[in-house]
């Protein structure tokens, strides 16, 4: 048997299973790739929020990364919660020495508004991590956190993308999901533009959306797709996952990572 494309996530754990490493690995399985993980932090987290977070030592992160990459190899890497400046810089150094496309989800806060990145790490994200990214996937809060640009309308997405691209990623995917109306994202490398639009689903259970989208992009890149192809496919996948999101616990439930594998699920592609 030939091994499927190999995708590595470097991110934190979500004990509730909706975001983080857990969402990444579910996405990778659903999209036909082999998911591997480098754990950067452990969170005590559920549908109501993050009750605690503990980052792993740099040596543990580096050892996990080298263990996977040096033996198994990777065809794409996705980063998520990196917590501290020291971890950001360590991961950026590892990525710079790896010959594979990199999707950077510059996680700053959780769905519930809990901080997942030390303020002292922001400059390291700007100057160390974004320059090694093939695609950076910030939401509007993360754009504001990193660049100071605040977006209140679809027409301002170009300005946000330009500000992110100044830090060096090859492509910026600015997620406009926090705006009113359709869910509109802008993918650009500074010269060509791709506008991705999907209807907004009336479903509050959207925990893990950002992790899922970035992981889906990494899966497409691992399969050899171009950045626009990978992002377009990822947008379709996450839109279906949001439509099928379900209640869990007493707060915000997760998107359904296995939506396309379940017959009759809303948004399931026709056979």
Automatic annotation (TrEMBL):
- InterPro entries, from UniProt? HMP/HMP-P_kinase_dom, PM/HMP-P_kinase-1, Ribokinase-like
A single GO molecular-function term is:
ATP binding
The UniProt keywords, alphabetically, are:
ATP-binding, Kinase, Nucleotide-binding, Thiamine biosynthesis, Transferase
Q: Where is the signal peptide?
A: none
Biological or metabolic pathway of the protein:
Cofactor biosynthesis; thiamine diphosphate biosynthesis; 4-amino-2-methyl-5-diphosphomethylpyrimidine from 5-amino-1-(5-phospho-D-ribosyl)imidazole: step 3/3
Residue ranges of domain Pyridoxamine kinase/Phosphomethylpyrimidine kinase in the record: 14-256
Q: What name goes with this protein?
A: Hydroxymethylpyrimidine/phosphomethylpyrimidine kinase
Source organism of this protein record = Streptomyces poonensis
């Amino acid at each position: 048997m030939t091994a499927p494309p190999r995708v590595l996530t470097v991110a934190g754990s979500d004990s509730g299973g909706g975001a983080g490493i857990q969402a990444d690995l579910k996405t990778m399985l659903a999209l036909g790739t082999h998911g591997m993980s480098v754990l950067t932090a452990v969170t005590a987290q559920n549908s109501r929020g993050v009750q605690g977070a503990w980052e792993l030592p740099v040596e543990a992160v580096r050892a996990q990364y080298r263990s996977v990459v040096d033996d198994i190899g990777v065809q794409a890497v996705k980063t998520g919660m990196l917590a501290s400046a020291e971890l950001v810089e360590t991961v950026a150094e590892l990525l710079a020495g790896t010959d594979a496309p990199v999707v950077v989800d510059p996680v700053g806060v959780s769905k519930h508004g809990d901080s997942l990145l030390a303020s002292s790490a922001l400059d390291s994200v700007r100057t160390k991590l974004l320059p090694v990214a093939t695609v950076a996937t910030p939401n509007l809060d993360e754009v504001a956190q990193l660049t100071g640009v605040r977006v209140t309308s679809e027409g301002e997405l170009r300005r946000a993308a330009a500000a992110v691209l100044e830090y060096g990623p090859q492509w910026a995917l600015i997620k406009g999901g926090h705006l009113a109306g359709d869910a509109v994202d802008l993918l650009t490398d500074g010269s060509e533009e791709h506008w991705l639009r999907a209807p907004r689903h009336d479903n509050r259970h959207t925990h893990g959306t950002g992790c899922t989208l970035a992981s889906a992009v990494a899966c497409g890149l691992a399969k050899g797709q171009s950045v626009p192809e990978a992002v377009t496919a990822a947008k379709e996948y996450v839109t279906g996952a949001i439509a099928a999101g379900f209640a869990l616990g007493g707060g915000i439930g997760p998107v359904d990572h296995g939506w396309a594998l379940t017959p009759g699920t809303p948004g399931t592609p026709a056979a």
